[in-house]
Design goal:
GO terms for molecular function: ATP binding; heat shock protein binding; unfolded protein binding; zinc ion binding. Belongs to the DnaJ family. One of its GO terms (biological process) is DNA replication. It is found in: Cytoplasm. The protein has 388 residues and is an alpha+beta fold. Among the domains are: 108 residues, Urease metallochaperone UreE, N-terminal domain (HSP40/DNAj peptide-binding domain, Sandwich); 74 residues, Urease metallochaperone UreE, N-terminal domain (HSP40/DNAj peptide-binding domain, Sandwich), CATH 2.60.260. It has 10 helices and 15 strands. The strands form 6 sheets. A 4-stranded mixed beta sheet has the order 10-11-15-14. The radius of gyration is 33 Å and the shape is elongated.
Length: 388
């Protein structure tokens, strides 16, 4: 309950330094800038920066998700209208009339009787799961995290495994995320009998809400772990092996389930999203699953025809240039492009480009003049029909 109220009382837009009508791209850019500035690796020992980093990450996890952002905005609008308050106190003209207003906790606790719909369903997605109508303790999933990696062009095309160094809230290694001192265990909360909820009456209605003694977890810790103070979470660096699939493109995101921020006291971890940046290659460019390469050739090779070696991802292959090929023509090599996840591969598109010598010796110059004369005598005009 306390966590839910805190979320609604916080201004996630202010945390990221953006306006409430900011676009998804503006939110993403603001988060990346702040995450780089506040990351624990860049601020060793700075607890204020670490706390700010957590707040920024939490704000981004809500505002970057369209559904969560919509629900968050709707709740903030309702709160701003004065119809109810996050602290559960009365609001003039609010729901409940003379019964003392409407407790925001009722929205998330759900009706205990009367057969009415669970109003918490409307906003369940924001606080971790829709349609909770059971008495199971609530566990808030850890926040999603984002990081980046840069790959060489050919590694991205062919697939590779990279190691990422991530510093983030992770399960405590001393208590293995339970929050209890090693050798002890959390005990069932006696106030809610382990359900995580307690019931109360408001006028003629009954409501259930998260247990204030255990904060809705269903358990209590008498002897907290000294390393994490009972949270089950510590901020530490860790190394993650990431398998990058073949054919990944520049700017593509890879989702690593359960590798994000740890949930409190054993709750599920969030996900880690890795944005891949791909460096340019000296030989190849890419168009979808096709690779493109420019092949330098001599004028005589185009006129007379030739077989030349062309680089591919797997070595070189011989390509036949037909006699009379024009400069700029593209030849297609089937199956020599980017591997497809569904099997097979794209094509390699080879564009021939005439390389003109900057200097010829006397013999070559004499031969070229003789060729030019023979070309004119044959009636060939390269500009015939041009610019008409």
């Amino acid at each position: 309950m306390a966590a839910q109220r805190e979320w609604l009382e916080r201004d996630f837009y202010a945390d990221l330094g953006v306006s409430s009508d900011a676009t998804a791209e503006q939110i993403k850019k603001a988060y990346r800038k702040l995450a780089r500035e506040l990351h624990p690796d860049a601020n060793p020992g700075d607890t204020a920066a670490e706390e700010r980093f957590k707040r920024v990450s939490e704000a981004h996890s809500v505002l970057a998700d369209d559904a969560k952002r919509k629900e968050y905005d709707e709740m903030r609008t309702l709160m701003a209208s004065g119809r109810f308050r996050a602290d559960g106190g009365p609001s003039a003209g609010g729901f409940g009339g003379g019964a003392g207003g409407f407790d925001i906790g009722d929205l998330f606790g759900g009706g205990a009787g009367g057969g009415g719909a669970d109003v918490g369903d409307l906003f369940g997605g924001l606080f971790g799961g829709r349609g909770r109508k059971t008495t199971a303790p609530r566990q808030r999933r850890g926040n999603d995290l984002e990081t980046e990696t840069t790959l060489a062009f050919r590694d991205a095309v062919q697939g590779t495994t990279v190691q990422l160094r991530v510093t983030s809230p992770s399960p405590c290694t001393n208590c293995h995320g339970s929050g209890a001192k090693p050798g002890t265990s959390p005990r069932t909360c006696t106030s809610c009998s382990g359900s995580g909820f307690v019931s109360r009456n408001q006028g003629h209605f009954g409501f259930s809400e998260p247990c204030p003694d255990c904060q809705g977890t269903g358990t209590k810790i008498d002897d907290p772990c000294p390393d994490c103070s009972g949270s089950g979470i510590t901020v530490r660096p860790r190394t993650i092996n990431v398998r990058v699939p073949q054919g990944v493109e520049d700017g593509q995101r890879i989702r690593l389930a359960g590798q994000g921020e740890a949930g409190r006291r054993g709750a599920p971890s969030g996900d880690l999203y890795v944005t891949v940046h791909v460096t340019a290659d000296k030989v190849f460019t890419r168009n979808g699953n096709d690779l493109k390469v420019e092949l330098p050739v001599a004028f005589s090779e185009l006129v007379l025809g030739a077989t030349v070696s062309v680089p591919t991802l797997d070595g070189t292959v011989g390509v036949k240039i037909p006699a009379g090929t024009s400069d700029g023509r593209t030849l297609r090599l089937k199956g020599r492009g980017v591997p497809k996840r569904s099997g097979g591969a794209g094509d390699l598109l080879v564009t021939v480009k005439v390389a003109v010598p900057s200097k010829l010796d006397d013999a070559a110059m004499a031969a070229m003049k003789s060729y030019a004369e023979a070309e004119r005598s044959s009636g060939f005009d390269p500009r015939d029909g041009w610019a008409r």
